[in-house]
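Milestone 3.1: sequence recovery, worked example.
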């Protein structure tokens, strides 16, 4: 908190962080840009009442980190937002929808409160989840529950490549990213301990995550909240890249074009922008958004924005899809199942002809088209 208050006091209101914020881009309103969030947090921690706009701007943040590199004095607006949201909760000013999601994660193990058996449909009927293996595949909530075709594609590729691999099956639970984004750190700490021990119980040396959010939580947040784990964490595209390059699986170029949407945590916190493009490059011609890599525009959905302000989140996804169409592509490659869920939902409300797919799905399709 001291650190957060120090950051708030350090802000010189230069405005460098305003226009890069996706919520300025979506609305054209500087009241929803990053600097306004610092102002709202300043009022909140000073004990002043927040205006409706002030409250809204604190919730219109996906903690995408786009503003962080623009600040000349090193302020992290997403850290300020995280703290402000925790303070709002202490004051009983949390939106009911956010409380519902947090409770679903804590009590039922996923933001959608899915029954455990919904997590394993991607494995098919005959698959027995083994207790131990060298590799552990963790699809995360969105890929396992809402987009089993995504998890199925990755698991089939990893199996076909001959990896000694297992999953957590029905035992898997949410990594708790939503709790972290909204400042519920005690609850997140409990999950960090439970999940680290659960993942270690498989004896896996390598944990492969489908979701960039899970990747960041397992790799960076859990060690800070609990301890370093006994396994290495890698992102699905990194291992797929190795699999293709070592010839474990042969793929065929489709001759089609694909535009790639970088996941925010990977591009900005880890500079991980190459592997997914390399995988996609084996099966299609890769085209870029105007702002890509570390400058990629957030899809607008995470951290509670989609449930609270769907029209704003949808506006951002719509802009990305429109830009994709203008580039003459018919496929959008996404590195994040939650981006995919969100962007596909927006596209379903239009006549858009774009296919939205993960690198795993496009890679699997390239095998199928070989036969
Ligand atoms: S983290 Fe992203 S959404 Fe939040 S203020 Fe910064 S740029 Fe805006
Ligand atoms: S860039 Fe940094 S100093 Fe400038 S307004 Fe944003 S948070 Fe404040």
């Amino acid at each position: 908190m001291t650190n957060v208050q120090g950051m708030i006091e350090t802000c010189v209101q230069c405005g460098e962080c305003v226009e890069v914020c996706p919520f300025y881009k979506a609305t054209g309103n500087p009241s929803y840009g990053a600097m306004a969030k610092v102002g709202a947090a300043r009022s909140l921690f000073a004990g002043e009442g927040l205006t409706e706009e002030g409250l809204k701007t604190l919730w219109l943040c996906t903690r995408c980190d786009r503003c962080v590199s623009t600040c000349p004095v090193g302020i992290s607006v997403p850290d300020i937002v995280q703290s402000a949201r925790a303070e709002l909760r202490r004051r009983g000013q949390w939106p009911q929808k956010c409380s519902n999601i947090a409770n679903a994660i804590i009590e039922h193990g996923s933001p959608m409160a899915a029954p455990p058996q919904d997590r394993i449909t991607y494995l098919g009927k005959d698959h027995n989840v083994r207790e131990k293996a060298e590799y552990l595949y963790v699809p995360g909530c969105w890929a396992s529950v809402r987009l089993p075709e995504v998890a199925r594609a990755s698991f089939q590729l990893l199996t076909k490549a001959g990896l000694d691999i297992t999953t957590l099956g029905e035992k898997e639970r949410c990594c708790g990213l939503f709790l972290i984004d909204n400042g519920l750190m005690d609850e997140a700490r409990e999950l960090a301990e439970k999940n680290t021990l659960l993942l270690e119980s498989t004896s896996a040396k390598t944990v492969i995550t489908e979701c960039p959010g899970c990747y960041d939580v397992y790799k960076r947040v859990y060690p800070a909240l609990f301890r370093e784990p006994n396994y290495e964490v890698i992102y699905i595209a990194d291992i797929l890249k190795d699999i293709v390059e070592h010839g474990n699986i042969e793929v065929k170029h489709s001759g089609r074009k694909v535009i790639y949407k970088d996941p925010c945590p990977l591009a900005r916190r880890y500079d991980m922008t190459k592997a997914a493009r390399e995988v996609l490059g084996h099966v299609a011609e890769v085209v870029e958004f105007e702002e890509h890599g570390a400058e990629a525009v957030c899809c607008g959905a995470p951290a509670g924005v989609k449930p609270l302000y769907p029209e704003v989140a949808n506006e951002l996804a719509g802009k990305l899809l429109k830009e994709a169409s203008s580039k003459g592509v018919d496929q959008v490659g996404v590195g994040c199942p939650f981006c995919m869920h969100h962007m596909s939902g927006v596209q379903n409300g239009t006549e858009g002809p774009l296919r939205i797919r993960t690198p795993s799905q496009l890679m699997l399709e390239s095998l199928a088209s070989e036969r």
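The mean pLDDT is 95. Residues 37 and 58 are 6 Å apart (CA to CA).
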